Amino acid sequence: MTDKSTLIASSKRARVELPMPFGWFQVLYSQELAIGQSLPLEYFDQELVIFRTESGVVKVLDAYCAHMGAHLGYGIRDQAGGGSRVVGESIVCPFHGWQFNGDGECTSIPYAKNLPPRVARCEKLIPSWHVREANQCIYVWYHPEGLDPLFDPIEIDEAGLDNADWGELQIHEWDIDTHMQEIGENAVDAAHFCFVHGTPEIPEPAEIRFEDHRRHGVFVSKMDTPRGTVEGRIENSSVGPGLSVVRFSGICDTVLMANITPISGIRSRAKYAFIQRRDGAKTSRVAQAIIDDIRQQMEEDKIIWARKRYLEKPMLCDGDGPFAKFRRWYSQFLIEGCDNDRG
């Protein structure tokens, strides 16, 4: 006979059973990593270390030193409370001072008279990760089979540091107990806006496209404002499963970089960065109200996401969005049977 605790554990494990998707994912904002700084990261069910070299280039490695297994993301002595020391283009292991560059090659053993053969041959000793820095964000490519990037992140003009027409990033973050696909499906779920977020009507999808690794959708909805009824427009574009940009227009032009990264298969981190047009005609109160409303929607969605069960064959009606099309598109990023360990 199966005991009650086993049944409960089985039920919890079965709430979402999907493999971790591959793609580009945001791990930090550029402003969070200074020159010569390193930090530990926990994403993709793995321990990583990120560092910015003295030349300003961002590198990511698996976290553990190939010498004796120390974690490279935690410093000691004058580095205590932060990451390990960075010297030139290499990170320094806090345990014995071995240095590794961004390709995972050992560049120095300060006390060795005879280098180990693999070090002497300049072999890669620690797995390295593909990194891109754009849009004031740092992205890492994850693939469970270790394949090189199959597509690239897009440049978001409004997020450029030299774009004087748009303001600074306003950053918010949530950790959510669910698989990323459950979060992504909101992009095609118009009906939930009315019932979860209390909008006066269900937004009308004006356009929805799925093309290779990209997805694009447009919703229009009437919004009541002190100036009367205004037609609002929400344009949502994704590159892969992890990177999305949402453009809101109608009241105060707002761009949202809504990026989701898997911490594990059943826990995701949402990094939301709002950018708003610098426009003296728009009051700061209206601009902030838009951000506050979207943040409130996220808090409401979290209640659903963290407790719902993923249904492989949901019972859909004619008023539901194109869930089947979304899932077919999303499935290209899921590799069944992978254990999400790059080895």
Automatic annotation (TrEMBL):
Question: What compartments host this protein?
Answer: Membrane
The pathway it acts in is: Hormone biosynthesis; Steroid hormone biosynthesis; dafachronic acid biosynthesis
Enzyme class, spelled out: oxidoreductase
Rieske domain residues: 25-140
Q: What is its EC number?
A: 1.14.19.21
Record Pfam families:
KshA_C, Rieske
| Residues spanning the membrane | none
Q: In terms of one coarse class, where is the protein primarily found?
A: membrane
Keywords annotated in UniProt: Membrane, Oxidoreductase, Transmembrane, Transmembrane helix
Matching entries from InterPro entries are given as: Cholesterol_7-desaturase, KshA-like_C, Rieske_2Fe-2S
Catalyses which reaction?
cholesterol + NADH + O2 + H(+) = 7-dehydrocholesterol + NAD(+) + 2 H2O; cholesterol + NADPH + O2 + H(+) = 7-dehydrocholesterol + NADP(+) + 2 H2O
PANTHER family to which the protein is assigned, alphabetical: CHOLESTEROL 7-DESATURASE NVD, IRON-SULFUR DOMAIN CONTAINING PROTEIN
Identify its protein family.
Belongs to the cholesterol 7-desaturase family.
Q: What is this protein called?
A: cholesterol 7-desaturase
